[in-house]
Design goal:
By secondary structure, the protein is of the alpha+beta class. It is built from 17 helices and 16 strands. α8 runs antiparallel to α9 and α9 crosses α11. The chain is globular. Bound molecules: adenosine-5'-triphosphate (ATP) and magnesium ion. The site of adenosine-5'-triphosphate has 16 residues, from β3, β8, β9 and α6.
Length: 586
Amino acid sequence: MKAEELREKYFSFFKQKNHIIIPGASLIPEHDPTVLFTTAGMHPLVPFLLGEKHPSGKRLVNIQKCVRTGDINEVGDSWHLTFFEMLGNWSLGDYWKKEAIEWSFEFLTGKNWLAIPLEKLSATVFAGDKDAPRDEGSAKIWRKLGLPEERICFLPKEDNWWGPAGQTGPCGPCTEMFYDTGKEKCGSECRPGCGCGKYVEIWNNVFMEYNKNEEGEYRELKQKNVDTGMGLERTIAVLNGFDNVYQTELFQPIIKKIEALSAFRYPSFTAHCRIIADHLKTASFILSEKIEPSNVEQGYVLRRLIRRSIRYGRQLGIKDIFCHKIAKVVVDIYPELRKNQEFIFEQLIREEEKFEKTLKKGLKQFEKLARDNKITAEEAFNLYQSYGFPFELTQELAKEKDIKLNKRDFEKALKRHQEFSRIGAEKKFKGGLADHTEKTTRYHTATHLLLAALRQVLGSHVQQKGSNITSERLRFDFSHGAKLTQKEIGKIEEIVNQKIKEDLEVGCEEMSLKEAKKQGAVGVFEKKYGERVKVYTIFNPKTGEVFSKEICGGPHVKRTSELGHFKIIKEESPGAGMRRLRAVLE
Ligand code: ATP
Ligand code: MG
């Protein structure tokens, strides 16, 4: 079975069970600045799992593209990828364990569906602990469906429990479904859930039935939800009798291309090929979101993936620039990438050329530094600063030589450097944020209008990356992959000036950071804010309509009519994946 057939079957099965197909969300979370990528199908649906009404109803089905950077060290094994697709069906306070498990079983074993023989399947369920009882309900359903007792395994919280996402909130037990690859057991303790590779987890049903409260107690929830996730790549692999995901049609052409480009077989040739294939696929999908390689956030992860691929590529004897050649094969597999393919190829070429310039020198420098079997945080920082080695790359090189490197020390070195450059910047801009004159206060409010207008015109991926205000102008950095057109600039100016004309009111409220997030306030959600934050809202006092809501320390004007006329005077890029605007109030 091919991936496309599995996607179609999944949709048609759950449509039959009265589910509505909803689109997957963006790979870059839109409303949650606390995580860089969407890591599971449930992630974009959190508000609805918390009780918000979903416009499509209570039974939903979708496919969600996921990126899990947390699995990067697993990549190279048979089953873990950094990019994969998750098929999911959802009950928002509707059906419960019986239907969910029975339907999973029907889809997996049904003749018209996946037709997996019963002997191949096993399940794990929650064993119970002081917080919540053993999930006998799920186990009973599995027994009734014909799973023998020895293939229903009870496991603790680490394995069979989900959530809550934060300190408090909905959570509950899950039941995971495994496919037996037929391999020998790794020992007498080997059973479903064992990490040896005999049992592959293909699907997970989460039953959100508890709310963990501030006291740490687990109370039954009123709205109980079902959240399921089935891995597309793993499932087609096992359906075809493959013992790893790289044999599927979603990877074979990529692997073949890497083999064709390689000059020699390295000792760990297979793992190298897999890592390159995985990473460049993930990089292609991140690039298709118009993220550029950089030293911050998503751009940093992207850079890490590309540079790691390049290093492994060189070890396989690939001498020429090659990442874009692999990406071309990725685009052939996923037609949806075609739309932004030029951007993907261009960025890969640029990043590889950039890294190429310093890679050899950096490796030489590393060898020199490692001679005394020790690398200090400052040295790692220098490799990062001067040779573009992401910390993790240095760490990986060090590990090969049995040298330990601590990320926290590196971060300290990085911070020292950043503080240093910030002090420099503050010196340069004397009239910075500390200067609360009438003029700077006006610029401050204009900055909020600008951010809201940018998000309207360019999209909600736009996030503030930096701001600097003097009494003469504002400077604003934000995440966006492309140069702004004259038309976009005109539109942004128009919106800001319109809002100034409407004489909106600026209100301020104090609340917890959590509440601010809940209300959809934008802003830099970093530790530098205390638990309680100030939220400034710019709204129409007559209609109550909110134009902007931001976490911010202030100060601000009372009414937007105080601002005067807003004009953008310069647009440029301060670094990859970012744009910088300068604007004045006339
Ligand atoms: P594992 O224990 O194998 O890492 P998980 O428990 O982290 O899996 P879930 O978070 O339950 O997985 O995700 C739901 C499904 O998504 C899994 O059953 C699996 O099919 C798939 N999946 C999870 N992580 C990966 C990955 N890194 N690569 C490919 N598929 C994955
Ligand atoms: Mg995992």
